[in-house]
């Protein structure tokens, strides 16, 4: 196997049969890497959760690069050319949009809002308009429309999943890639690392905000989330 990419939370290897192996790391970051820690068991939890969510997505008609979970910390996935856009879907206002637009935290977004951010750490992942995306030649007009449509479909499936677990989906970030035939599909991961999720009644966080804001144990939070998910899937 050959290491082809290492990011903040994952290593990606090319295997002999052209599939990719993703290894989830015991690292957690926030603020574009300004906050960084090692936490034993974090990679295992992210892998178990993300694998379970991808499997739930598949059962509900959402295709992705996910093939199967092959160990406690690893997945086998299809090779994709990643589109350098982070697609954010917001059901409620939280995080950066509260500061940008002066909204109230957890203000309902109706309809859900889709935003694009340039996947470029050196620039701080800036917010992009459709015209910016065209100017940078990151995706065509038709592809941007398709990404929005798919993101909203994923939102509906993910909201349903969270509601069955007694949770509210505040917002989430996803990425997409193209296979060898140019088919666009869901990539990267979906986990409490990439979502904001709160308990419907207590409003307790079940996501990485407990680490960002130093309000609780990330490992305990992700373990509690996984227990809820296990009962569902």
Structural write-up:
A hairpin with a 5-residue loop joins β2 and β3. By secondary structure, the protein is α+β, with helices and mostly antiparallel strands. Helix content is 31%, strand content 32%. It is globular. It contains six helices and 14 strands. The longest helix is centred in the middle third of the chain and has 24 residues. The chain has two domains: 76 residues, Phosphorylase Kinase, domain 1 (2-Layer Sandwich), CATH 3.30.200; 136 residues, D-amino Acid Aminotransferase, Chain A, domain 1 (2-Layer Sandwich), CATH 3.30.470.20. It is an enzyme of class 6 (ligase). Belongs to the SAICAR synthetase family. GO terms for molecular function: phosphoribosylaminoimidazolesuccinocarboxamide synthase activity. InterPro entries: SAICAR_synt/ADE2_N, SAICAR_synt_PurC, SAICAR_synth, SAICAR_synthetase, SAICAR_synthetase_CS. It catalyses: 5-amino-1-(5-phospho-D-ribosyl)imidazole-4-carboxylate + L-aspartate + ATP = (2S)-2-[5-amino-1-(5-phospho-beta-D-ribosyl)imidazole-4-carboxamido]succinate + ADP + phosphate + 2 H(+).
- In round numbers, the mean pLDDT is 96
Helix content: 25-40%
**How many structural domains are formed by the residues?**
2
Order of helices and strands: EEEEEHEEEEHEEHHEEEHH
CATH architecture of the largest domain: 2-Layer Sandwich
Q: Per the principal axes of the C-alpha atoms, what is the gross shape? A: globular
Q: Which CATH C-level class of the largest domain is it?
A: Alpha Beta
Radius of gyration: 17 Å
Question: How many distinct beta strands?
Answer: 14
How would a crystallographer describe the biggest sheet? 7 strands, antiparallel
Instruction: Find the CATH superfamily of the largest domain.
Output: ATP-grasp fold, B domain
**Ends apart, CA distance between termini:** 32 Å
